[in-house]
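[Automated response] Your request has been received and processed.

Submitted sequence:
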Amino acid sequence: MKPSLLYISYYFPPIKSIAVKRNYFLAKGLRNYFGDVQVLTTSNYKSLDQEAMPLDGLSVKYLATFDYRTILAKFRRKKSTHFSEEKKSGWIVQLFIRLNESFPFNLLIGEGGIIYILHGLIEGIRILKKKDKKIIITSFRPFSNVCIGYLLKIRYPKADWVVSFHDFPIENLRKNVILKKLQFWVWKKFLSKCNKAFTVSNGITHLIQAMNPNVITIMNGIIPRKSVNQNSKKFRIVYTGSIYLGFRDPTLLFRSFSEMVQNKMVDKNKVELIYAGKDNTIWNKMISSFSLNEVSLVLNDLPTHEALALQESAHLNVLLTWATHEQKGILTGKLFEYLGCGNPVLAIINGTNDQEITSLFDEIGCGKVVSSDDLGADDHIKTFIKQLYQDWENGKSFPSYYPNLKEYSWEHQVERLAEFVLHP
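Generated structure:
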């Protein structure tokens, strides 16, 4: 008889967020390996931007929640899961963000909050007490999910508790916490109780290993889609996503592309630089400073199906990420969305070269990786774009890399996860 699984995740449908998709596809896929999968998530979905996704037999319980999102929803006209960088730039907001990610403040004001944690503990006990074999997966972020898992592990010491990470909790570059030594102590204490952990990239796995050695990498999966850029009248460069000031930085792209337009390496009447996301105010200011308004189209944050369609129409999708010598492997969910449509990808890393990303691109054959620290980074970008542009003018398509994506499917990732969770 297959065991049951308790999956705890604040970010879950119908909330609209890239963070939702990883938890959704993992929980949904694990149904094939467990007798049933029961999900605990937040009642705050009522106050956040929503996007329906079929639950396909998943049992979902919504936990009572009173956190900062609950409060902000009372004062906002528009439902929104994420805030623009412009709204997050003030020092008061920045301090609040650091408190929100730091123990013990995250128990009170962080996503979930104390009511969510207590309700999660009660529901978890109700579900697990009926099970002979108790298996729990908790997703970070936020911390409240992990806190529920920790308390359930104390209640049921023989339970198998697995923690999922798509971020590292303490980031030196972002300086996202206060009382850093305390945060390390808390995380080491929590993770000393968990049986296993898995992360989204080898870079994060390496960092988590210092706290729990039984950790593996389970990447995000890919859903193959169809490219529709063959008959476009303009060469499209597309970015759909967020800008994180000082981290995801499009300056290198703008500088390189602006020089290409000015030097007539591309025909300005035949190119289009398109942005869709919540940070359109910042994007507009930046393209103006590089005199790219004439070739730019700036859109608001789009529903997922429209954002995916825009990626499918692109001749080049742009990925923005960051890396330092201490922390690498920031493989965003956006990358795997891009790979699904089969169009070329230009990854621009703010900081040092990230060998994990470079190796992934080389293995799949999906495009080009350039870091801001690279010698001649601007020239690398211009050469890559020029080649794609000339191929487009000549009616030549980018070589298909679909055959190289098999092991990156959600089915393959879920199979590896199930093997890891169910066996010693």
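Summary generated for your ticket: The radius of gyration is 22 Å. Residues 377-393 form the longest helix (17 residues).
If you did not submit this request, please reply to this message.
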